[in-house]
Amino acid sequence: MTGPSVHLGDGLNVSQLGFGGMALTPVYGEVDPQEALTTLHHAVDAGVSFIDTADIYGGGSNEELIAQLLKDRRDEVQLATKFSLVGTPTDGYTEIRGDAAYIRQAVDRSLKRLGTDVIDLYYMHRRDLRVPIVETVEAMAGLVQQGKVKHLGLSEVTAQELAEAHAVHPIAAVQSEWSIWSRDVERNVVPAAAALGVGFVPYSPLGRGFLTGTVDASSLGAQDFRRRIPRFAEDAADANQAVVATVRTVAAELSATPAQVALAWLLEQGKRLSLPVVPIPGTRKTHRIDENLGALSLAFTPTQLAALDQAADAVVGSRSADPTWVSQGRE
Questions:
Q1: Which of 67, 201, 250, 323 is the most exposed place for a label (fewest CB within 10 A)?
Q2: How far is CA 270 from CA 189, 198, 202, 312, in A?
Q3: Are strands 119-124 and 149-155 parallel, antiparallel or unpaired?
Q4: What's the pTM?
């Protein structure tokens, strides 16, 4: 199934909603590989063809899983992956690398794992502060010239870093955490992307599951990496139920689900700002994909939008244990 597309930037067209592949690795608990592959196929069948992964998800196993999807459906998928993090979300990241030698190695490894000869969108996952971003992007641009990559993206960069990078080579998309309860990017990064004609790809658009109303501190398993995030600490998570309550109220008024409201709110921000916005919620369940697509048809009243906008004021706890890990800590 082919649905309406969104032009991000630099000529890259993708589906209106994307799929975040990180959920199909054991960062939130154990994963059934066959169920994961079934979910991926269902996503593409439903028109969610913008598939996002990274070389560190599952130590490369996430890319290998997606390779099974691509084997017969490469032409149907807009494929995004990332480089720069050494380690895994579960075990911890040991290093960030943005040097040219590493980038050349990383892209070849990803291409091999994915079983493809080209990546549609290649992101710098996190900024290597030891390497000027201009040098990192110059190396990435070389991959475009070699035909290994079609478009370039950046994740969790500041507005200044985005501007410097875009001056070297067109950036198609910025990926950062953005949702009703994570709005710091709206101060500088979002306006910069809009001004430069760069699309925005919000990761964790459902607040790592919290905005769905199905997650609290007590529901996190021992290996769930959300335990490391301050706003998921027990006291903070309890206080943050006030945000969920607002989302639930609006959802009830619209006969929708909290997840649909959270996604539709992000899409509304894109309309407000004339900014291409493509959220990438992840899930292991096929029915959640269908549910998420319901967000595309939601429309808010001004009162509902105001309530959702104000909900961020109630958030307790930061979105990262290390402030420099995300753009917020470097601005």
A1: 323
A2: 13, 12, 11, 17
A3: parallel
A4: 0.91
- Joined tokens for residue 127: 């900024």
Number of neighbouring beta carbons within 10 Å of residue 160? 15
Paired tokens of 235 = 């006291």
Q: Which domains, ranges and CATH numbers included, belong to the chain?
A: 5-325 (3.20.20.100)
Tokens linked to 58: 């599952």
Sign of the C-alpha dihedral computed for residues 50, 56, 67 and 61 taken in this order? negative
Beta bridge partners of 182: 179
What is the per-residue pLDDT across 16-65, written as a single tens digit (0 to 9) for each? 999 999 989 876 667 888 999 999 999 999 999 999 999 999 889 999 99
C-beta separation of 190 from 273 below 8 A = yes
Which one from 28, 57, 122, 123 is the annotated catalytic residue?
Answer: 57
- Each residue's pLDDT tens digit, 177-193: 999 988 889 999 999 99
Q: Is 203 a catalytic residue?
A: no
